[in-house]
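Structure in, sequence out. Go:
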């Protein structure tokens, strides 16, 4: 594994050394932070935690929960879907409160631009996206509201790509890739068993590969179905991740902070006040 030195203003950093982990809250502590070669982030839709984790219709995701770090108290920020995607990608909902198609792109900071400015790479892959750089509101089973990177002027259009462009050789992945299933495979419109099978089929070999190639998979959901206080599944698997349940309350800002800390990026927006996920 590769390790970098970082200075972070958090109490319990991602895969921190015991010395760093003992730093008091809000203090500034020097720590060693795991720098993955690749991170793949998958976001699914509108399911409460117990409707997925341990559910008989989602055997693959349930197996992943046992295999990796399972955050049992993860929550979305709000309802409906779109603001949660923006929070995860940019540390802020950008003032968006609904699912209406965003007609004017934001010029505000975001994870994709941070990675590019640091000399790293980013690509967003959306299933059913009709063409590279497409900015339309919908097309078949694709919807823009689940594709936050297209909403920012600073993310080049050629990094907004159809899922068919996802590399078949995992070492060719960008540093960070977001993968957005279509309205069927994200559990929005189709039975959740279909999404479970899709994830296994699409990224099952990546999960196996990541564990021995210094890489991570992050699986989360945007929101619940408004029946459980926005309690959602969130899992992390890969190299250096200790399997087991994590009971601390986390949200999309913690996920964003985890990625930013791993690559030495300044936390954005509400991620400034979030601690990274505990993976070791």
């Amino acid at each position: 594994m590769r390790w970098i030195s970082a200075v972070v203003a958090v109490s319990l950093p991602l895969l921190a050394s015991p010395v760093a982990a003992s730093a008091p809250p809000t203090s500034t502590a020097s720590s060693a932070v795991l720098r993955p070669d690749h991170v793949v982030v998958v976001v699914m839709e509108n399911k409460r935690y117990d409707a997925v984790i341990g559910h008989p219709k989602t055997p693959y995701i349930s197996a992943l929960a046992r295999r990796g770090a399972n955050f049992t108290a993860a929550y979305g920020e709000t309802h409906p879907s779109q603001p949660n995607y923006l929070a995860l990608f940019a540390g802020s909902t950008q003032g968006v409160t609904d699912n209406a198609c965003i007609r004017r792109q934001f010029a505000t900071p975001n994870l994709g631009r941070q990675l590019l400015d640091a000399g790293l790479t980013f690509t967003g892959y959306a299933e059913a996206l009709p063409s590279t750089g497409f900015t339309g509101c919908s097309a078949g089973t694709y919807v823009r509201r689940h594709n936050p990177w297209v909403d920012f002027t600073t993310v080049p259009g050629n990094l907004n790509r159809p899922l068919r462009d996802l590399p078949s050789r995992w070492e060719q992945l960008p540093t960070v890739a977001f993968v957005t299933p279509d309205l069927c495979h994200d559990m929005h419109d189709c039975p959740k068993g279909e999404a479970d099978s899709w994830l296994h089929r699409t990224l099952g070999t990546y999960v196996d590969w990541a564990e021995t190639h210094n890489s991570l998979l992050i699986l989360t959901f945007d929101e619940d179905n408004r029946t459980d206080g926005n309690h959602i599944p969130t899992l992390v698997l890969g190299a250096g991740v200790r399997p087991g349940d994590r009971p601390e309350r986390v949200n999309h800002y913690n996920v964003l902070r985890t990625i930013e800390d791993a690559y030495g990026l300044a936390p954005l927006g509400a991620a400034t006040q979030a601690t990274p996920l505990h993976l070791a």
